[in-house]
Write a structure and sequence with these properties.
Layout lengths: L1 H9 L4 H13 L4 H8 L3 H14 L2 E6 L2 E6 L5 H35 L2 E6 H15 L3 E6 L2 H6 L1 H12 L4 E6 L15 E6 L8 E5 L2 E6 L4 E6 L1 H17 L2
Parallel strand pairs: 4-5, 5-6
Antiparallel strand pairs: 1-2, 3-9, 4-7, 7-8, 8-9
């Protein structure tokens, strides 16, 4: 019976509607008083539920000796609910497709406005790297000391593979401590790398792509994403200055 109730919920029958339908299915035609005694709900509420089930076409009424009885209709009628549900979903899909361009336009306008977001933990930081792929523009990256690969391992390698598949070019400024270990084989195709002396140590890694600047603080597993043309321009200039120093 529990599995029946679970499925009936999926096709649009509320919990108390399910109970009434299954009782009528099991015991046949019943008076309201009989239903009340079996379920324990208020009589007025039972009437409301019965009327809803009649509207759905899954129960019927009959009158005997001037008394109204209620019975469960053929269970095949449940298929009508599924068909109606399917048609409703198709209508919703068609309507949603029509308004989707407007929703995307609203989102784009919001994205174009200056804003900042913070992400916490490894799963939060992954949002930054997924956004870099989604933005699909060349980027620069400095303050790099190998933490991405160290902290994310298989995800970092998978990300670089997807990066290569998109043929995204990028520039990295590594700390000189990694000079003999970078670039990785997976990086060589689209990256240009330079190194800063080891004395230039960074507590965070900075990615600049499009109009966005992402600052990843590895020690705290915190990332800040700033969507600002002016901020991105400032960090691009900062990168260019370090690029001239780097070797």
């Amino acid at each position: 019976m529990k599995s029946n109730i679970s499925f009936l919920e999926n096709v649009g029958l509320k919990k108390n509607q399910q109970q009434i339908y299954l009782i009528l299915l099991q015991f046949g035609e019943l008076k309201v008083s009989d239903i009340v005694s079996k379920i324990g709900l208020q009589r007025s509420y039972i009437y409301d539920l019965l009327n809803e089930l009649i509207e759905k076409g899954v129960i019927y009424t009959s009158i005997k000796n001037k008394v109204t009885f209620y019975g469960a209709d053929n269970p095949d009628k449940i298929l009508n609910l599924i068909v109606a549900q399917k048609k409703g979903l198709e209508r919703n899909e068609d309507q949603y497709k029509k308004i989707l361009p407007d929703l995307l336009a609203i989102q784009r306008k919001a994205i174009e406005k200056e804003n900042a977001q913070m992400f916490f933990g490894k799963e939060g930081i992954k949002n930054i790297f997924e956004d870099i792929l989604k933005t699909n523009k060349e980027f620069v990256n400095f303050g790099v000391e190998g933490q991405f690969l160290t902290n994310f391992k298989s995800y970092a390698l998978n990300w670089h593979t997807r990066l290569n598949n998109q043929k995204l070019k990028y520039k990295l400024i590594y700390n000189a401590s990694l000079k003999n270990r970078r670039p990785l084989d997976i990086q060589k195709k689209y990256v240009v790398i330079k190194f800063l002396p080891e004395k230039y140590s960074f507590p965070a890694t900075i990615y600049v792509y499009g109009n966005k600047t992402a600052i990843v603080i590895w020690e705290s597993n915190i990332a800040i994403l700033i969507n600002s043309v002016a901020t991105a321009k400032t960090f691009y200039n900062y990168f260019d200055m370090l690029w001239q120093i780097a070797k």
